[in-house]
Amino acid sequence: MAIRVRLGDWKNEIEQELKQNILNFWMKHGIDDVHGGFIGAMKNDLTIIPEYDKGLVLNARLLWTFASAYRIYRDPAYLEIADRAYAYLTDHFWDRENGGLYWMLNFKGEPSERKKQIYGQAFFIYAIAEYVRAKPNKEALNWAILTFELIEKYSYDPVYKGYIEALDGNWEETSDLSLSGTDLNEKKSMNTHLHILEAYTNLYRVWPDASLTAKLKELIEVTIDHIVDTESGHFLLFFDEAWGVKSHEISYGHDIEGSWLLMEAAETLGDEKLLLRVKKVALDMAQAVYEAGLDTDGAVINEADQSGWIDTDKHWWPQAEAVVGFLNAYQMSGEEHYLQAAYGAWRFIDDKIVDKDNGEWYWLVDREGQPSDERMKIDPWKCPYHNGRMGFEIVERVHKMEGEK
Q1: Which of 5, 104, 300, 374 is the most exposed place for a label (fewest CB within 10 A)?
Q2: What digits encode the pLDDT tens for the residues 144-185?
Q3: Own/partner pairs for 77-83, CB < 8 Å, 24+ apart?
Q4: 112 vs 60, 90, 151, CA distance in Å?
């Protein structure tokens, strides 16, 4: 039975979660007052692990989150956190000898992993572009442009197109390509391409240079031609250099996230012919997740393969992406089942994922809804990017939808 979704009430509920829980949590608990920047890790019970490494992804995502918060709300407290993140990234993560950003620092802010993981370089661009949107700044924009040029110089594949996963600290070929311990050690991945796409889209908003225009268009086409399995509507995950498929697992969270990021990229680029092509792909992807990736409680299942579900845990980030992705599908199509799915994912988040005792969100709950204490509240991957972005997107999208009405 369909639930009547009152968009204004829903927007207000999510905005309260965004401001009072997510952003406040990081302002209160994320600062490293001893060594500078932000802490590297915290358990669910708020116990800080003091000598944990500091990840590029976490720090770049913090810059993006609080720059976005300031852009929307103009609260100087948000700008203070964004400024802190910007300074820490450019002062400590930037490799002044070779250019680009280190993958990991120790707790003192010294490089502990020097390799140039392109996923991390992309998130720096994404964050810097948002910082420039919030606070126009030529110096900051130059950091993003320089990083774009480094990615294109060293990671771009001129033969098969797309981007190689990683280079060593000197931007030379490396055999250590994998993004994390759960990823395959392959030359190319969906995940890295998806986040270069989102980075280049955001950079285009503040720097619509001809070189970037061409690369963004090509990247959208590469994603549709090689990374989306148009028969199933799912992303393929890992590839060799020539786009030979190396895995057949399904990541429903990436599918629903990719559906709206692809659409955002095409809308930002403004190529009408390409936009029509992307719209069909995006709706097919959202429908594939709707049909095969949702549990009866409205949550997105983590992973499947050709035999069916293989990981039924409910991680925090696919739920956040489902809220945005299904609302985006509803905006594109007007189909009510997408709005119901977006709202259902939010209801699951509020009921099971939000930590009502210690704040922020649990990393994951099992299929019975029990949170895991093995995964932390803060670590190099756990950050306010997915859930914060969900808040910003819903607030802005519903505001626009209400205005249109």
Answers
A1: 374
A2: 999 999 999 999 999 999 999 999 999 999 999 999 988 999
A3: 77/27, 78/23, 79/134, 79/135, 81/26, 81/27, 82/131, 82/134, 82/135
A4: 17, 16, 21
Residue 325: partners with Cβ closer than 8 Å, 6 or more residues away: 256, 257, 259, 260, 286, 289, 342
> Quick check: pTM over 0.85?
yes
Residue type, 129: A
Which H helix or E strand runs over 9? helix 7-16
- Closest CA relative to residue 353, chosen from 388, 329, 317, 386: 317
| Cα 231 to chain centroid, rounded | 25
Helix (H, G, I), strand (E, B) or coil at 29: helix
Element (H, E) at 294: none
Contact assessment for residue 189 and residue 206, using Cβ atoms and an 8 Å cutoff:
no
Q: Cα separations (Å) of 16 from 20, 24, 336?
A: 6, 11, 25
Q: What is the DSSP letter of 209?
A: -
Query: What angle, rounded to 10 degrees, do the helices at 138-154 and 210-222 form?
Result: 50
Is the Cβ–Cβ distance between 259 and 328 less than 8 Å?
A: yes
Nearest to 26 by CA among 65, 54, 55: 65
* Alpha helices (H) in 43-165, listed in sequence order: 56-73, 76-88, 118-134, 138-154
SS3 label, residue 113: strand
CA 260 to chain centre: 11
The residue whose two tokens read 């997408």 is: 338
Give CA–CA dist 186/180, Å, rounded.
12
- The verdict on domain 1-28+249-405 having CATH code 1.50.10.10 is yes
Residues in the chain: 405
Domain boundaries, the chain: 1-28+249-405, 55-222
CATH number belonging to the domain at 55-222, selected among 3.40.50.700, 1.50.10.10, 3.40.640.10, 2.60.40.10: 1.50.10.10
**Which residue has tokens 């505001």?**
399
The answer to whether the 1-28+249-405 and 55-222 domains have the same CATH topology is yes
Minimal CA–CA distance to 82: which of 17, 138, 15, 140? Answer: 140
Q: What is the percent of the chain with per-residue pLDDT over 90, rounded to a whole number?
A: 97
pLDDT in tens, 226-282: 999 999 999 999 999 999 999 999 999 999 999 999 999 999 999 999 999 999 999
